[in-house]
Structures are given as structure tokens and as C-alpha cells.
Design goal:
By secondary structure, the protein is mostly helical. It has one domain. It contains 16 helices and no strands.
Length: 390
């Protein structure tokens, strides 16, 4: 595909998103969250595609090449988002120690089931080649694996619904909901949060090794140079991390915390119910915040968010010349489906993925976010180590 045609198609997609956003903004009051959700999803898609903000890629870069930039970008996203959440939460709930949890924040039960779900999710990332958000933006790049990974994720959610009740009765029902500002207050929580993030950044940087700088490309004019930096070259990882933190704050303030799995899980739950296979009662599930699923109509805020993400990443990839569709090989199909099942089961059981439970959770001060971060990273590193040996 020629560069000119790619740019034209990308512009058409962007204009379509703009018109859709305007139409949704004028819809009924009960759908007032759809327009900002579409805008947030589109911005998120551009950030992910331009900065390669991918949890598996960042861990693998450090594991294989000791490149610290991606992991530091994740920590930067948490730091910026934590500061933004602090402003929002202290406005909405001035006294965090009054016995109430932060409204709509991703605060999940902390226990062995969460740790297991995070570990399984990390293994699924390694097998399938990305996390759920990574597969969504790579779908816009034409990845041959992403469609099968997302189908596998839906099946994993269905499996998670079938195993939820036994896990809830045996462990989740007694697991505590730990919101750190309720224990420490906002100021001490934020200070501790930044101290931990700085310590991890320092540790990662100490053992890391920055790659050699790439030679600058010759440019004709400053405008051409700027356009090339924005639309063609990959953005620095730190720019992507900071942008994710800002977007997470805006999304929480305007709609809900960032998350990408509620729509996939909702459709899986609906199909399971239609087939008569869904348990009559999913104990306690709908009482938790996070990327919880429900039997919904087709057009939900999270579904619109995901559509915006895919469309915007597609446009971004087209302009950058990174839209490279290919027919899937049998190995890619198997890896996508198998890893996707693990991703779906882990995300359903943990009430979210690396975006909802990890990012939105840690930014809100939820201990569940930190548990998911460590256990998913452990699962990823363990699977990478086994993969390297094989």
C-alpha cells in the first residue's frame, strides 16, 4: 500500500471517529459516557501504538537485553496516574479513613486466588505474545496472532465464570479489600507510593543497560523533522508512560478507570448465558469494582473504548508504515488461542488485566494492583526463562 493511500485511509478513519464521537455526544442522557469513552479509547490506542507501551515487550526487553526504558515507563505511568488520582480522590472523598472505599476504583480482594490469576495471566502473555491491550493495538497493526488471542481470551473468560463460584467460596469471599489510603491517609500513601516507585526505578536502572543511540535521520526542514518524530518514529517510552498516567486520570474523572477487558468478558458472559451454561448465580462477582462483566447490550462504554483503541491504532500504524497484515501460521494460531485462554481466565479471576487491575489499581492505591503487578511479572519471567531453555 502506498504512503499516500495509507494517509488518506487513516484520515478517513480519524474523521469517522470524530463524527461518531459527535453523534454519541448528542445521544440520550443514559449514554452520556459513550462519547468520552470513544475519545479515551482512541487516545489510548495512539499512545500504545506510537510508544510500544506493551507489558510483555517491556519485560522481555529487560530480561533479554537489560533495556530498562520500558519498565521505567510503566513505573512513570503509575507515578503520574497516582498523582492525578490523588487530586481526584481527595476532592471526591476528603477523608479516606471514614470506612468508604474510593468510588468505582479498581480495588480487588487480595489473596492466593489473585496471586494465582496474576501468575497465569503472565504466562498467557508470554505464550500469546502480548497482554490483552497489546493484542488490541496490534490488531490495528494487522497482527496475525491478535485475533486468535482475543478469541482465546473470550474462551478464558467463559472458563473463569465456570470456576468463579468454587474459588469465591473457598478463598475470595474472605479475602480483604485493601485500600492503602484508608490505612495511611492520602499524604503518607502517596509518599510511600513514590518511594517504592523510585526504589524500583533505581534498581531497574542499576542493573539495566541503555542501548546505543540511533543516528539522527537527515531532515529537510524543522517541520518535516517534527512530523517524522510524531507520526513515523516510535515515541520515547517515557513519553508513552507519562501520557498513560495523564489519560488514566482524565478517564477516571470523566467516566471510569481505564480497563480493556469488561467488553470481552461481557460478551463471553452473554454467550455463556444464551447457551444455558452460565451458573445461575456468580457469588459476589457483581459487588466488586474493577473490570467486572455483565450481560449487556452491544454498545457499552467499554466496548466503545475498545473500538476507539483499535481504530486509532490502525490509523497510527498506517501513517507510520507499520500496518503489516499477514496470514497466520498454524503456530501463531495455537499460541494465540492457548495463551489467550490463560489471559482470559487470569483477567476474569483477577477482575481485570494489566490495564484495569495493575495500572488503575495501583494508581488508586489498591494493594491488589501491586499483587497483580508482581505475580504477573513473575509468571512472565518464569515463562520467558522456560522458553529460553527450550
Amino acid at each position: 500500500m502506498s504512503r499516500s493511500l495509507s494517509v488518506v485511509i487513516a484520515v478517513v478513519v480519524v474523521l469517522s471517529l470524530a463524527f461518531a464521537n459527535a453523534a454519541l455526544a448528542g445521544s440520550a442522557v443514559e449514554n452520556r459516557q459513550l462519547a468520552p469513552s470513544l475519545a479515551h479509547g482512541a487516545i489510548f490506542g495512539v499512545i500504545l501504538q506510537r510508544s510500544r507501551f506493551c507489558f510483555l515487550c517491556n519485560l522481555r526487553d529487560y530480561f533479554d537485553n537489560r533495556d530498562p526504558r520500558g519498565l521505567v515507563a510503566i513505573l512513570l505511568a503509575i507515578a503520574v496516574g497516582s498523582l492525578g488520582y490523588h487530586v481526584v480522590l481527595s476532592t471526591w472523598l476528603p477523608n479516606p479513613m471514614g470506612g468508604r472505599l474510593a468510588p468505582d476504583a479498581h480495588i480487588g480482594p487480595v489473596g492466593p486466588v489473585l496471586a494465582l490469576a496474576g501468575f497465569i495471566f503472565g504466562v498467557g502473555m508470554t505464550i500469546s505474545g502480548s497482554c490483552v491491550s497489546g493484542h488490541l493495538y496490534r490488531l490495528g497493526e494487522g497482527s496475525p496472532t491478535a485475533p486468535f488471542a482475543l478469541v482465546g481470551t473470550a474462551f478464558g473468560f467463559a472458563l473463569g465464570f465456570l470456576t468463579w463460584n468454587p474459588l469465591y467460596v473457598s478463598s475470595i469471599s474472605t479475602a480483604p479489600l485493601i485500600w492503602l489510603p484508608a490505612q495511611l491517609g492520602y499524604s503518607r500513601w502517596l509518599a510511600l507510593q513514590f518511594l517504592v516507585l523510585a526504589a524500583f526505578a533505581g534498581l531497574i536502572g542499576w542493573y539495566g543497560r541503555l542501548p546505543q543511540a540511533q543516528p539522527l535521520l537527515p531532515t529537510t526542514t524543522p517541520v518535516h523533522h517534527a512530523l517524522h518524530k510524531i507520526f513515523i518514529e516510535r515515541w520515547p517510552a517515557s513519553v508513552g508512560g507519562a501520557a498513560v498516567g495523564v489519560l488514566a486520570t482524565v478517564a477516571y474523572f470523566q467516566v471510569k478507570p481505564l480497563g480493556v477487558t469488561a467488553a470481552v468478558g461481557g460478551y463471553a458472559r452473554t454467550l455463556l448465558a444464551s447457551a444455558g451454561q452460565l451458573p445461575q448465580t456468580l457469588h459476589g462477582l457483581d459487588g466488586f469494582a474493577g473490570c467486572r462483566t455483565s450481560i449487556d447490550t452491544l454498545l457499552t462504554p467499554n466496548a466503545v473504548f475498545v473500538l476507539g483503541l483499535i481504530a486509532a491504532s490502525f490509523s497510527s500504524a498506517l501513517i507510520a508504515g507499520q500496518f503489516q497484515p499477514a496470514l497466520p501460521a498454524p503456530r501463531q494460531i495455537v499460541k494465540g488461542l492457548g495463551g489467550g485462554v490463560l489471559l482470559g481466565w487470569g483477567a476474569m479471576t483477577a477482575l481485570g488485566c494489566t490495564v484495569g487491575t495493575l495500572l488503575s489499581g495501583t494508581m488508586a492505591g489498591a494493594a491488589s494492583g501491586w499483587v497483580f503487578l508482581f505475580t504477573s511479572a513473575t509468571g512472565t519471567l518464569a515463562a520467558l526463562a522456560i522458553k529460553r531453555r527450550l
